[in-house]
Design a protein that fits this description.
Largest sheet: 7 strands, mixed
Strand content: 15-25%
Mean pLDDT: 90
């Protein structure tokens, strides 16, 4: 998707407001067509918002807010606190968040307070994937997790919870609603304006393609589109919503020259979501974008990034001003967040105040934060081989036992296994177990179960290695290498008959193994 047109192109539409552009229909078609594959092959970036460090930090903040709300209520009530995740995508963040939330509630002795986490998206295929995922079923069984179809761009003010068969409508929630939106608002329809010497212009887009009769649901459709922009003068009273017009007037007075995105559909969705809880809403959002006026003023044209889908920087400044205009407030980091802006917005603060919310946010995002860790990882991941064992282990611990990071570190760890003490071997084995517990499978080609199992076998932990080789068979099928290694674990555990059966299966699919089978021990000692 590029700016500019050519004579040979076929025009799909001319001079459309950005939020009405065919681009957004193509965006929706992409996610509806590919479903979970958008994240499975990493076409759509998601790691920065789907890792244990960010999930744990956000769980701290959400729990702080819920405790503030609970302290301000005259009665505990039986209704659960609802936490709605918009655009839950792969489901990986929800899994990590629920693990962190469960751990923190147990440590704080707060497990008795009912919480219902709701994963949502606008594509039914994603919901089917989550509902069938074995890692999420325990949370469903515990009453902690539910699912819903929620379309940010077409929110009608109601939400049907599929597991509890509950319909939420305006005023149906007695307790405040928490909303989590990570890497969501950057891909939702929005309007674009240009300000020049106090004059407000709406940005209009012409979209063309080099493929006549283009099917918007076709693969790589976004790469076939070409954009050209124009402008038309508009009055600040452009919207029916006075808050939006107030934002436009403010930007016309703030910017001498530059473009600004106004996330009108997202803000309308938040208006409807706040109505579910009678005007009380807590939004916690992480994305690339602008929160302050200085960075906003540097934008000349909308910065479109294509990655299977496409995305734009989020104008969090508009969110901030919208919340303030409605009597709300904002909590944000006290320093520039370079790779990921994480901000909290509140409507209808608890009567008891926001003490625990602010403390939790301060501890999670001021000073050392997930954004800082992400940048640090980018700098050292090419140098894992140079780190000592304790440094590698510290890196994994600081990641809150991120399975991806441990997988990246395994070659460096493996080189050091022979020199490890008994205590270090135990600590390493425990780290592998904790990282695997944080793994949420979405079908990626990288077989972390096999990699972790091989390392555990190298550490002299055949029982733990056996369990992960078995996981590898479940997730990736009967690969002869996995069956062979599984047999080695069974021999080490004194189970030669089971080992022999595994070797027979391995030999059936890889005959070259047959000549080695007779050389293996017949009893279990190694």
């Amino acid at each position: 998707m590029t700016i500019g047109t050519e004579d040979s192109l076929t025009t799909l539409e001319t001079n459309k407001p950005f939020s009405e552009s065919v681009l957004w229909r193509a965006q929706r078609s992409y996610f509806e067509r590919v479903g979970i594959d958008a994240w499975r092959d990493a076409t759509v970036p998601h790691y920065v918002t789907c890792n244990p460090a960010l999930a744990h930090a956000m769980a701290q903040v959400v729990l702080g807010f819920l405790r503030d709300c609970d302290a301000g209520e005259s009665r505990a009530g039986s209704e659960p606190f609802h936490v709605l995740e918009l655009g839950a995508g792969s489901g990986r963040f929800a899994f990590l968040f629920l693990r962190a939330l469960s751990e923190l509630r147990e440590v704080m002795g707060w497990s008795h307070v009912p919480i219902r986490y709701v994963m949502s998206d606008f594509t039914e295929s994603n919901l089917r994937f989550w509902r069938a995922h074995p890692a999420l079923r325990p949370f469903v069984s515990a009453g902690l997790l539910d699912f819903a179809l929620v379309d940010v761009e077409r929110m009608d003010g109601t939400i049907e919870l599929l597991e509890s068969k509950t319909m939420l409508g305006a005023g149906s929630l007695e307790r405040p609603l928490t909303v989590i939106a990570n890497y969501v608002f950057d891909g939702v329809a929005q309007d674009a304006f240009f300000i020049e010497k106090g004059q407000l212009f709406e940005c209009l887009f012409t979209v063309a393609t080099d493929t006549p009769e283009l099917d918007l649901s076709a693969a790589n459709v976004l790469t076939r589109l070409r954009l050209a922009s124009s402008r038309r003068a508009v009055h600040p009273d452009h919207y029916p919503e006075p808050e939006f017009n107030g934002l436009l007037r403010a930007y016309a007075g703030l910017l001498d020259e530059g473009s600004v995105l106004l996330p009108a559909p997202a803000l309308r969705c938040l208006e409807k979501l706040s109505a579910l809880a009678r005007g009380r809403l807590f939004l916690l959002s992480a994305d690339k974008g602008h929160l302050d006026e200085a960075s906003l003023a540097r934008e000349v044209e909308p910065q479109v990034t294509v990655h299977g889908s496409f995305s734009l920087p989020v104008n969090y400044h508009a969110f901030q001003q919208w919340f303030l205009l409605k009597g709300g407030e904002l909590t944000c980091a006290d320093h520039r967040q370079s790779s990921l802006v994480v901000a909290a917005f509140i409507l209808g603060a608890p009567a008891s105040g926001m003490t625990e919310t602010r403390l939790a946010y301060h501890l999670a995002f001021n000073g050392p934060s997930p954004d800082d860790f992400f940048r640090l990882r980018q700098g050292i991941e090419a140098h894992y081989e140079a780190l000592e064992f304790e440094q590698l282990l510290a890196h994994v611990r600081l990641s809150r036992y991120d399975a991806r990071i441990l997988g990246d570190c395994l070659p460096a760890f493996s080189q050091r296994v022979a020199a490890l003490s008994a205590q270090e071997r135990t600590e390493f084995a425990q780290a592998i177990g904790r990282a695997w517990a944080n793994y949420f499978h979405i079908g990626e080609s990288r077989d972390l179960a096999f990699a972790f199992a091989a390392c555990l076998y190298q550490l002299g932990e055949p029982a733990s290695a056996l369990a992960l080789f078995e996981e590898s068979l479940i997730l990736y099928g009967e690969d002869p290498r996995t069956l062979w290694n599984l047999a080695m674990c069974l021999f080490a555990l004194g189970r030669p008959e089971d080992a022999a059966r595994s070797l027979v299966k391995a030999g059936e699919s890889f005959p070259l193994l047959q000549e080695h089978i007779g050389l293996l021990p017949k009893t279990g000692s190694g």
